[in-house]
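Below is how a single chain appears once it has passed through the pipeline. First comes the sequence as given, then the structure the pipeline wrote out for it. We keep one example in the README because the format questions we get most often are answered faster by looking than by reading.
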Amino acid sequence: MIGRQNSPVPDFRVSAPENARLAATVLLAIMMVSASWLFGWPDWVARGLIAVGLTLVAVAAMMAAQARLRLRARAMATDLLTGFIEKDASPSFVADDDGVIHARNPAAAKRFTDAEKETLAGTLRAVLANPSAVLFRLQSRARADGAAQEDVITRRGHVRLSVHQMHGGSFLWRVEDIVERSSSGRNAESIPIPLMTVGRTGAVLFMNEAARSLVGSRVKSLDRVFVDLPVRSGQINTMTTANGPIQALVVENTRTQGRNELYFLETDSAEGSEGGTTFENLPVPFLKVAPSGEVLSVNKLALALMGVANCNDKKLGQLMEGLGRPMSDWLRDTADGLAPNKSEFLRLSRRDKEVFVQVTLSRAIEDGVTVLIAVLNDATELKTLEAQFVQSQKMQAIGQLAGGVAHDFNNLLTAISGHCDLLLLRHDQGDQDYGDLIQIHENANRAAALVSQLLAFSRKQTLLPEVLDLRDTLSDLTHLLNRLVGEKVTLTLSHDPVMRSIRADKRQLEQVLMNLVVNARDAMPQGGEIRIETEVVSLDRPIERNRATVPAGDWVTVKVLDEGEGIDPDKLQKVFEPFYTTKRTGEGTGLGLSTAYGIIKQTGGYIFVDSIKGSGTEFTLYFPVHNAQVSQAKTAKSKIEDTAPKHGEGVVLLVEDEAPVRAFASRALRLRGYTVLEAESAEDALRTLEDPGLNVDVFVTDVVMPGMDGPSWVREALKTRPDTRVVFVSGYAEGAFGESQPNVPNSVFLPKPFSLNQLTETVHEQLN
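Resulting structure:
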């Protein structure tokens, strides 16, 4: 420690009082012994004085021994304290009750080289605006509790000031810098948009470099910047700068703890006089978006960045992708004030080149209507995101491959299983070929299940979500799970007594749970216990894990825990990748966990894994709580079976580019008595419908075809035939419509592969 006499810590001041008392005692003993010799007192008085004097000498010797022991103990404590403070990486000070510094460690001398002050308040004035108040507050708490600490926000960042009360009335102070980690990896100082952070009382807590350059100096309150208060978010406000008044567009973000963020951009005075929110000539790419996703306005720089001529009738999801969850959910949460105020890194939907943007989405009120302001920043060159986007591109490529393979296989399986159904109609159980046909049919169904795994992994399967109580779902599944785990493994369930509902596809959720339980069973070849625990958790703040952020709110968690071999740390981050398995060759396909990951993400949830080698593995699933709105009970529909049209009463226009699928579907519908018109493309279908005398009851059409796709030609045909019913079929999932496509009225979706009965029953239900 560096002090005024190079002392490590303040002197405990125990040696001087002990020596004074010791000297007084010895002096008194000498005086009493001498008096017995100098004066002619009786012999018994002299002997008494000598006895008392010798007693005082013995007492003085004991006092000297005790003082020496105390001094040694205090010296050891001083050495320990000195060694601890000397090697502390944070600046440390030892000060008395008045704040006078007695010693400082090398870190403090290095940090405060230009502040060699006698008092702690004077030294910390280079860091804190008003250190005396903070020091007094902390010192008062330290006297009562023994220690205290406080985080202080400064213009250079966060500083943590802590104090511990020492023996003798001294205080040990530590000054620690807290490094702020932004979720996007970028500090607010580097944002090119002027930014202010404002407190409840209008005090300016932070200004980035762009804001200081625009205003001309660092200000402490909003009234020094804006002429009229309160600030009008989403509108043009007049600002006072070093170069005179300017007009600026201001967007306000509400943060936690009563703090707001203000983004402002200078505009022309002509624009300010109009009082509107014209984005055309702003120096930063801007978009104004409705909560439903439609782009309302866009400026020139944003058009240039996105590589489009205009954004008429386009949604934000068509212009960029890569959010990891539905774009509509992000927009709705931001509009409702539920989404965390952080930037998202997305990929623009450009064909000429690959461009990544950092999108900051803000909520604003314009003429009483909620709108969203999207600020774009070109993030293509950010090296810190390289690894994340490489992984994202790899997974997207595999997902597209899986989706494409699934589409082609679904067309093949539709033709195989369909023609098998046609053959089964002509054979009964007594025929010689009946068993072979059943084998073909069952294996086609097994192939369809494998294809559905590919679609689940690529998150392109068709989900049938419903409101579920996990207790009921697991109760129905318990019998099957007990059969799966066998006799060596014990399966136990533990439920939260206050369970909330979720919205998910029950069949897919059961597949995920069975996958996890089977993996847990395989990890315990000698037996053990598998625990499934459900719990309702409320997150006060978002949690970040493995580059994923779980927003704050209410969640239902499902944990699957085993006592197995565990997973190596270097393999833990790869378990959700397709075709990756920790099992021996021939024992695993590597699709189980990747399929589970796709199902959970498509449901809107999250899945995480924790494992300790040799101690077991824990999978944690997060599902958003379903807040069902109270609605009136639906009245039971009266039975109308006797008035429903029968099979064969209707004309069907079948549009399918795959000839085997078209042949099967046509024969299946004709067997049920329908009149079938065939077309191999959308253009042929429209030419067929040019005949005004032709009456068509149902369109059965593929979604993805060469040339015009299914939804496009159907919308064109419905202009002249608005009452016609529609059945869309596709080897892709229902998401093949695309986010930009509106819903087609009177339409249903039938995924491939479908059976003869599924096709005919769907057409029959549409005619009803």
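The chain has 20 helices and 31 strands.

See the next section for the split statistics.
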